Amino acid sequence: MDAAPRAFAELPRDRELGAPVPFACGTDDGYGGAGTPSARALDKRRVTQCALSRICGVCGAGLGRPIAFLGSSIEVGRNAFHFPPSHVDCAQALVAAYAGVDQPVLGQDESAPRVLVTTASFEFVRANREDLDRRPTFHPSALLNETSAR
Ligand SMILES: [Zn+2]
After folding, report:
1. 132 CA to middle of ligand 1, Å?
2. 117 by DSSP, 3-state: which?
3. How far is the CA of 56 from the centre of ligand 1 (A)?
4. How remote is the CA of residue 46 from the centroid of ligand 1, in Å?
C-alpha cells in the first residue's frame, strides 16, 4: 500500500530536527504507522516510485513542469541528484524548512540541500555494480534556472 499524497503543511515532522519529512524519506510505517518519521535518509523504494511514476519527492502528488531538483553544489556540478524530482513550490518550501539544519539529511552527503534547479525533464540512472555510491541518481536535462538558498 502506498501512502496518499500529502500537502506540505501536513507532512509528518522529524521529531529530532523539527522539520517536515518529505515523501521520499517516508516509509509506510513512518507515515501513520508505528515507525518514527525521519528525514535522515531517503527511502529507496519511494525514490524509485517517484522516478517511475513521476511524482513529487516532497508531497507525493503527480508532477507537472517545470520540475525542481534540490541538492548540494556538488550535485549541481555533477548534474546528478539523489533527492527525487519535486514541484517547484514543494522544493522551495523544503529548502526553506531545512535552512537552519547543518547536517546530512534528505539524501545529502554534507548538509541539507542548498541549491534548487529547475528543468523540463530528467533521466533516472541506477548505480552500476562497481559504483561506490549505489544509490540511483536523477540527471536533469537542460537546466532552466538555478537558485541558491544560501
Ligand atoms: Zn509536491
Report:
1. 30
2. strand
3. 5
4. 14
Residue 90 host element (H or E): helix 88-97
C-alpha cell of 24? 521520499
Ramachandran angles phi, psi of 67, nearest 5°? -110, 140
Kindly report the pTM of this predicted structure: 0.89
Which helix H or strand E contains 78, and what residues bound it?
helix 73-78
**Per residue in 26-74, pLDDT tens?**
765 544 455 678 898 899 999 999 999 999 999 999 999 999 999 999 9
Q: Which three cell numbers stand for residue 139?
A: 540527471
Band (pLDDT 50/70/90 cuts) for residue 120 is very high
CA distance 83 to 53: 15
Q: Where are the domains of the chain?
A: 8-148
- 7 alpha carbon – ligand 1 mean position (Å): 8
Task: Map residue 20 onto helix, strand or coil.
Answer: strand
Return the sign of the alpha-carbon dihedral for residues 122, 112, 145, 8.
Answer: positive
